[in-house]
Amino acid sequence: MPAKKFSERKEGWFRILVCIVSGIILGLWGKLVFFISFINWLIVVFSNKRNRALAEFCESWNTESYKFMRYNTFMSNKRPFPFSKIERISKYS
Q1: In this structure, is the dihedral angle defined by the CA atoms of residues 16, 22, 24 and 26, taken in order, positive or negative?
Q2: Which of 3, 33, 66, 89 has the most C-beta neighbours closer than 10 Å?
């Protein structure tokens, strides 16, 4: 039983590093997503069609931000990017 407590304690301390590194990356990525969302909006307005690649890029950020919040609030032990591979929760429709 003490080994389990040490493991949880170690994971708790590691979350500080994950929060800093992932937070910086997701913050910068979020600014890019905001810009890309505006570009995609312009594409929709003028061509009446969404750009699938841009939407999927934004969806990846949405998923990683969600994983980041779940990890930092101790709801999950699944680490966000760059400590795991990039994922998407939903399929593009």
Answers
A1: negative
A2: 33
| pLDDT single digits (tens) 36-83 | 999 999 999 999 998 999 988 899 999 999 999 999 898 988 888 888
Contacts of 75 (CB under 8 A, 6+ apart): none
**Long-range contacts of residues 27-35, Cβ cutoff 8 Å, at least 24 apart:** 29/61, 29/64, 30/61, 30/65, 33/57, 33/58, 33/61
Whole-model pTM over 0.70: yes
d(CA 61, CA 30): 7
Q: What does each C-alpha distance from 10 to 5, 15, 20, 59 come to in angstroms?
A: 9, 9, 16, 31
Q: How many CA atoms lie within 13 A of 23 on its CB side?
A: 10
Sequence letter at residue 54: L
